Amino acid sequence: MTRERRRGVLSIDEGTTGTRAAVVLDDGGAAPPAYLPLSVRSPDHLRVEQDATEIWANTVEVCREALDRAAADRVEITGVSISTQRATVLLWDTVTGSPLTQAVVWQDRRYAARLREWEPQWDAPLVEHTGRPVGSRAPLLWAAEEIARNAAARRAHRAGRLAFGSVDTWLVWKLTGGARHVMSATNAVAAGAYDLRTGDWHEPWVSFLGCPPDVLPKIVDDDGDFGATDPSVLGVRLPILSVMGDQHAAMIALGAHRPGQATTVHGTGTFLDAVAGDRPPVHRRQVPGVLTLVGWRSRGTSVFSLEGYASTTGSAMRWLCEQIGLFDSPAQLAALAREHTGPTRVMFLPALAGLRTPVWSPEATGILTGLSLSTTRAELARGVLNGFAHSVCDLLDGVQEVMGGPVTDLFCGGGLAGSDVLMSAQADLIGRPVRRARDHETASLRGVAYLGGVRAGLWPSVSAAVAGLQQAPVFEPTLSEAERTQARAAWRELLARHVGTAEPGGPRPDAQEESPS
């Protein structure tokens, strides 16, 4: 009996700490992904960098492995989709195809102090046009200064052979053999100079930062014209169907498609994204760290979203395990947390790269408090996960305040979402049920493939692609309202002591932060 030939999309997910690729099949599921880790280096407490050559080499290797698996399984590949970490940028020579800089990662804060000086002049107009204030990171400022101080970049620019872009720009340029120098809308909005009204670069801010316009990529729809893969790269010519920032792709896969629906994705950082509708939302109050983004841009039409994020949750867990050695692995930490079923005074603030919501403080550091001679490793682990859950509550409170209404559905995904303890803690502290989406570990891979697959005719809509997946399990709150209120008050008091707010949880009304990957 001859097996029916299936169809699928080769999907790439290039994250901060690893690269994976898998074929997303026409039933909405993903084949087992090929994966390679990525190195991240921090030369000092402000700089975070990666090797763009390693990113590219990893991408090629995992794609070839995924294509080999698809061939063995008789899957017809209709195209390629790419999900990437956002706001990680680099410069490269378009003739040699080689990077001229390290890739500066979205967690980098080298310009935080200087950018604060520009807040009085620029915050209001930037929020109006780009949905975000000056913030603590400016990829286009970095590009301008790198061209000025880097002799190789300066020579390439003078010769008309210098390109700037984020990771999606870099991968599309390499995959197409240099035929496309573009950036998807969801990645461009994270670069901090995307005009929400025009869908193009916001020229006044670009000019002020001193970034030469000729090095900037063209901004296109997330399912726009990205060209096709060069056969010499992957051994086959395939259309590049869609390119998205990873959190936006996760929104699609996890099921947040209508206004009021939201996702929480626990990766290197934790991101909360809520669908806001077909117009940029009016911020009823400026809440630190809550930004207006393009949720996705398809066929010339934008769906907007609101986002808040905590930059170091998953990376804080790895830090506790790998660098400090308090636990053998994140899996052990999660397992130990299950053993502590009673109350705990241990609190962990995962602000290892600054704090954004509810208080904007890029210089803030992490806290581990409430320790005593009776503290066990299990209680310590529970305190760490509770800290992540409190961070989610802070993000949700901020997004709802800007929306002027409640989030109706909260879908959770990402590696840490596999912890029942963390999911239960989120439900308890939010006071509402939360859903852990099925196959949440592959959300970014699948979401960008769903958007591309609609373009290729695999599904009539992204909702249809998600509809075939199993129902998400629900975690119900178990704390009483009094217990929840007490726990949240203790957390706000910790923040007030640490960052010096005027009142527990009281944010600076004029401050926000830009969003990354």
From TrEMBL:
Name of this chain's protein: Carbohydrate kinase
UniProt-listed SUPFAM superfamilies: Actin-like ATPase domain
Listed transmembrane segments: none
Region feature (Disordered): 497-517
BP GO terms, sorted: glycerol catabolic process
Organism: Nonomuraea rhodomycinica
Domain Carbohydrate kinase FGGY N-terminal: 9-252
Family to which this protein belongs: Belongs to the FGGY kinase family.
Classification via Pfam families: FGGY_C, FGGY_N
GO CC list: cytosol
Domain of life of the source: Bacteria
Annotated keywords: ATP-binding, Kinase, Nucleotide-binding, Transferase
GO molecular function: ATP binding; glycerol kinase activity
UniProt-listed InterPro entries: ATPase_NBD (IPR043129), Carb_kinase_FGGY (IPR000577), FGGY_C (IPR018485), FGGY_N (IPR018484)
PANTHER family tied to this protein: GLYCEROL KINASE, SUGAR KINASE
Boundaries of every Carbohydrate kinase FGGY C-terminal domain copy: 264-454
